[in-house]
């Protein structure tokens, strides 16, 4: 859509000076670009944090975008470019709970026009009728990573514009492990050697905590082809095929119990200390995503990224694959502008390359991926580690999984519960929650 057609859709919008100021509480949001000092045909401003108790859109803007503090600086820069090109006023507001705040605001008629979030939000958003389909041409869609396009669909309809693909990988301290371990047993042996020599205190830094973490624990289940949901004939996840206590998943549960006994895994490691354990050389390995790298780089630890190892009696451990995307509200104040921003402006190589700065996740657009991979070798390493990974389930029933499965993982690792019995219980808990609509 041309600048003129957007302007016509917003007849009466006046010109504003271009500015962008920090918002939110995080350090990322505070690093937003400063005012350029130039005049333009439109403006974009990061207008501060969304009030979690009473979330409301910026009433003065033509296009309002809600995102978290990490993505806000980059999104604000892109919004500024779009505003200048199209003569509109765009407001970027930060939220600590984008999805939760959006759901509340949508019911109150205060929702933004666009939100930035993960693809696994999609099922709930579609079920609530709060997001609109987006129209990507076949030519545009062909330019994206096929997995990203698959993750952007629900019941065959596209509901989001992807900008990044993310997954966990194995990260090793190269002072303790020169080469990537091919098997989990090799990983344990190498890591234990570092512990025995008093160089490290932990073999592996994996976020788990006392209440568990299903996302970080999933690769130990997938190594035996276990998991959470089976699929329909068309490949979509099926809430009626819960496999938390399947024979394959139980093999993973028993492995977790064994690793807990050997102190390879610990519920004393959670999101508050996992990154620092590895960054400070206290853990030989970590299973994490690219979001941890800034902490490692700041500490100066030497590391390398590789695919996860194989498990004895099973195969390769694979992480969940996640896709970050932009959703358009079904009640967007200016639907034409919102759709144009999402489907035309954000699908360019230039925009997707800028969005790479949000967590250094591999871009979803193939041209942008190829461009950044030439200068950043880690991009290809993360992508390779995600080969064979399945997209995280985006069906509403997934909301019923996280807490019960996470707690089951923690209870098994800590030795509090026997693996088979605990996962049988988790299966029943999740089935009951799905039935209850939770």
UniProtKB/TrEMBL annotation:
Keyword GTP-binding in record: no
InterPro entries in alphabetical order: SBP
Compositionally biased tracts (Low complexity): 26-49
Pfam families with a match to the protein in the record: SBP_bac_8
Keywords: Signal, Transport
Positions of the UniProt region annotated as Disordered: 21-53
SUPFAM superfamilies for this protein: Periplasmic binding protein-like II
PROSITE patterns documented for this protein: PROKAR_LIPOPROTEIN (PS51257)
Keyword Transport among UniProt keywords: yes
Signal peptide boundaries: 1-20
Gene3D superfamilies, per database record: Periplasmic binding protein-like II (3.40.190.10)
Family: Belongs to the bacterial solute-binding protein 1 family.
Record-given protein name: Maltose ABC transporter substrate-binding protein
């Amino acid at each position: 859509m041309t600048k003129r057609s957007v302007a016509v859709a917003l007849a009466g919008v006046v010109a504003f000076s271009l500015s962008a100021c920090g918002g939110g509480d995080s350090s990322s949001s505070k690093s937003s670009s400063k005012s350029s000092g130039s005049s333009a045909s439109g403006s974009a401003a990061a207008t501060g944090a969304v009030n979690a108790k009473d979330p409301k859109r910026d009433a003065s803007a033509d296009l309002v975008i809600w995102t978290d503090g990490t993505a806000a600086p980059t999104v604000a820069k892109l919004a500024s470019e779009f505003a200048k090109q199209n003569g509109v006023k765009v407001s970027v507001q930060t939220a600590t709970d984008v999805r939760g705040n959006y759901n509340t605001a949508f019911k109150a008629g205060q929702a933004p026009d666009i939100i930035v979030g993960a693809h696994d939000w999609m099922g709930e958003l579609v079920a609530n009728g709060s997001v609109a389909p987006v129209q990507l041409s076949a030519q545009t869609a062909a330019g994206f990573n096929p997995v990203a396009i698959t993750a952007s669909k629900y019941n065959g309809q596209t509901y989001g514009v992807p900008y990044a693909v993310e997954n966990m990988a194995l990260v090793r301290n190269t002072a303790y492990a020169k080469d990537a371990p091919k098997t989990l047993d090799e990983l344990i042996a190498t890591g234990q050697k570092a512990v025995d020599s008093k160089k490290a205190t932990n073999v592996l830094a994996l976020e788990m905590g006392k209440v568990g973490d299903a996302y970080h624990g999933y690769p130990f289940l997938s190594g035996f082809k276990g998991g959470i949901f089976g699929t329909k004939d068309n490949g979509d996840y099926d809430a009626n095929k819960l496999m938390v206590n399947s024979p394959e998943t139980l093999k993973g549960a028993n492995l977790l119990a064994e690793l807990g006994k050997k102190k390879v895994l610990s519920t004393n490691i959670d999101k508050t200390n996992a990154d620092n354990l590895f960054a400070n050389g206290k853990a030989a390995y970590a299973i994490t995503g690219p979001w941890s790298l800034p902490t490692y780089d700041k500490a100066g630890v030497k590391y390398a990224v590789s695919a996860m190892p194989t498990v004895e009696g099973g195969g390769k451990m694979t992480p969940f694959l996640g896709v970050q995307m932009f959703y358009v509200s079904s009640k967007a104040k200016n639907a034409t502008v919102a759709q144009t921003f999402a489907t035309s402006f954000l699908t360019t190589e230039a925009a997707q390359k800028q969005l790479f700065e949000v967590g250094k996740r591999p871009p979803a657009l193939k041209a942008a991926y190829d461009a950044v991979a030439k200068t950043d070798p880690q991009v290809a390493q993360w992508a390779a580690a995600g080969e064979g990974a399945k997209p995280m389930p985006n069906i509403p029933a997934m909301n019923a999984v996280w807490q019960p499965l996470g707690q089951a993982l923690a209870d098994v690792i800590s030795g509090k519960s026997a693996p088979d019995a605990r996962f049988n219980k988790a299966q029943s808990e999740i089935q009951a929650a799905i039935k209850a609509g939770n």
